[in-house]
Amino acid sequence: MARAWLTQTAPDRASITQENVMNWLSNNVFPFIGKKPISAITPRDVLSALQKIEDRGVIDSAHRVKQICGQVFRFAVASGFASRDVTVDLKGALAVPKKGHFADITEPKQVGALLRSIHGYSGHPYAIAALKLSPLVFVRPGELRAAEWAEINLEAAEWRISGQKMKMDNDHIVPLSTQAVEILRSVLPLSGHTKFVFPSIRTTDRCMSENTVNAALRGLGYSKEMMTAQGFRAMARTIMAEVLGERVDLI
User: What are the residue ranges spanned by the domains of the chain?
Assistant: First the structure.
């Protein structure tokens, strides 16, 4: 029934979304209730499958899958294979997603558009480098702008933030992709003689302003309601959990 609904409604969604919806169903629904006649599935059956998603800590995904199941049930009703949408009985049964005040983009197609915009951004070299690094390292904006050259080993492709600076017992090790290393090498001739990777343009004694990356995003046409520097962390977490299916504890 779900596959029939997907085929019927495919023209209404992007191909990447179609693939994501199929993956959500295949990974989270079919293994548990996929072999039951849709008319025999109870609200409790659906809730049991959704709670397995909740247990992984991806509350937004649980709500999204519930919404998809509801669409499948309504399609089944219209097709004469079910009498009602049983997901209606699950109102309030799932945990409420936490609402952060940092805007982020998590839909893969929109993420692609954002990354292409970032690639074409023109501005101060420090702002360009910090903006391009943001989706590659998943650190907090304050940690990125306060990065020090002494912490970075380009040969080992490693950024080691001291535990003392992170207020942790151990150093925080950030692996650097080939692209991240290339970006850092591009800024090395400009700020390599200073303490900070991204010094303030007014004085090398301080790191760049906390508003620099956000201002760059605004320059690309992304309002504060659409995307913020902090949003890259949520973007990474959501894409890795929902699209790549990575374990939450590893993320």
Answer: 2-90, 108-243
Cα separation, 197 vs 58, whole angstroms: 34
The answer to whether 227 and 217 have CB atoms below 8 angstroms apart is yes
Dmax over CA atoms of the chain, in Å, equals 72
**What CATH number belongs to 108-243?**
1.10.443.10
Neighbours of 238 (CB within 10 A): 20
Q: pTM score, two decimals?
A: 0.61
CATH 1.10.3720.10 for the 2-90 domain, yes or no? no
Strands 152-153 and 172-175: unpaired
pLDDT at 156 over 90: yes
Tokens of 93: 């049964």
In the numeric block, which tokens belong to residue 88? 């209606």
